[in-house]
Specification:
Aspartate Aminotransferase, domain 1; seven-stranded mixed sheet; 2 domains; single chain; four-stranded mixed sheet; binds pyridoxal-5'-phosphate; 395 residues; alpha/beta
């Protein structure tokens, strides 16, 4: 039996029809299958492979750290240089008062920790979240998701959470003195790469400040350079109380983190102590990969190159069937005329060696989130396939 058959037989599936690409190896912007065919990656592991596949500096950092020491103790007890350096560097790069970082294992876990922190810090329970948000798949994260079709089978979820429409100023009246926090994706991903109106987050933050509620921004997808800044919120003149990150942070390794002020973060150490603990959070090999990734993306000219590639993509993605290209930086979504076109574009492009993917809720959308290191030539090649496939599709 080959690996593909074993995949369907022994490995639990998340949909009835996984794409089933058999991966041999991956490098730069390409994934190579078992037959040696190169697949140009316009998805980057759903925004996670920020610096491309097997970036040599990330590989070197991982190898060196693995040979030096791996897991030695639960996070928070010992001083482990990669984790310390990562947190220190983040503090240097983030605006005040965001100076203390808690490292965990995934984006979802970081969301859980952020929700817990907001409740413990404010001693309030009510949490507002964006309609059609996606923050992960655990009980807490699903409680701020608003997708009954996907969440009802697992209910009841956590109480005192309520959705507000994203970008709707009139909904901000729901932020009241009982509100612990508002949690939003800085750019809504699954909903269709919806960018906030220029003043929306600023207005929302003032409203939070007025009643003592916290603003939690989920930067798991837009963060770590994907929008052409280290964090997406930097485009909108706002500083959240808690920033949650993950995905591209690890350069292909699993990590999540939340950053807040030192005073707020001390809640986890004292009120109660051991308020959020995790065996592998701050893992030295993963932290070394994240530190190497951060060095690459915060290097000279990296963010401006991301913004130039966005402009190139926008020029190349002009076609009568493309109604809109939404998003920011290299977090873009093509909006087509109907869901069938989106579906066919993903499937037919796959046959031509271009990896595309769907969005969670917006079925007319196709995700374009390539590695941030993709070259102009690779962008040109991929977009040509997209245009040719769209030419071949019925209306
Ligand atoms: C905005 C956002 N939040 C949270 C998550 C969950 O992160 P993870 O899958 O690492 O747990 C994701 C993952 O897709 C995401 O895009």
């Amino acid at each position: 039996m080959d690996h593909k058959e074993n995949f369907y037989k022994y490995q639990a599936q998340t949909t009835p029809h996984p794409l089933g690409l058999v991966v041999d190896h991956a490098s730069g912007s390409y994934i190579y299958d078992h037959l040696g065919t190169a697949h140009l990656d316009f998805v980057a592991g759903v925004s996670a492979c920020s610096v491309g596949h097997a970036h040599p500096e990330v590989v070197r950092a991982v190898q060196q750290q693995a040979a030096s020491y791996m897991h030695v103790m639960v996070y928070g007890e010992y001083v482990q240089t990669p984790a310390v350096e990562l947190c220190r560097r983040l503090a240097e790069l983030m605006p005040e008062p965001l100076d203390t970082t808690y490292l965990v294992n995934s984006g979802t876990e970081a969301i859980e920790a952020a929700l817990k922190l907001a409740r413990a810090w404010t001693k309030r329970q009510k949490i507002l979240y964006g309609k059609r948000a996606y923050h992960g798949n655990t009980m807490g994260a699903m409680s701020v998701m608003d997708y009954p079709e996907r969440t009802d089978p697992f209910g009841p979820l956590i109480p005192h959470t309520r959705p507000i429409a994203f970008n709707d100023y009139s909904a901000l009246d729901q932020i009241d003195p009982e509100t612990a926090a508002v949690i939003l994706e800085t750019i809504q991903g699954g909903a269709g790469f919806i960018v906030p109106d220029p003043d929306y987050l600023k207005t929302l933050k003032s409203k939070c400040d007025a009643v003592g509620a916290l603003l939690i921004l989920d930067e798991i997808q837009p963060g770590f350079g994907r929008t052409g800044r280290l964090f997406g919120f930097e485009h909108f003149g706002v500083v959240p109380d808690i920033v949650v990150m993950g995905k591209g942070m690890g350069g292909g390794m699993p990590i999540g983190a939340l950053t807040a002020s030192k005073a707020m973060m001390e809640t986890f150490a004292t009120k109660p102590k051991l308020g959020h603990i995790t065996t592998f959070g701050g893992h030295p090999v993963i932290a070394a990969a994240a530190l190497a990734t951060l060095k690459i993306i915060s290097g000279d000219g990296f963010f401006s190159a991301v913004l130039e590639k966005e402009q190139l993509l926008r020029r190349e993605l002009q076609h009568p069937k493309i109604k809109e290209v939404r998003g920011k930086g290299l977090m873009l979504a093509i909006i087509l005329e109907n869901p069938n076109q989106a579906n066919e574009l993903v499937l037919r492009s796959a046959k031509r060696g271009l990896i595309l993917f769907w969005l969670l809720y917006e079925d007319k959308a196709v995700r374009i989130t390539p590695p941030l290191t993709i070259s102009n030539q690779e962008i040109g090649q991929g977009c040509q396939i997209i245009r040719e496939v769209l030419d071949s599709l019925d209306a």
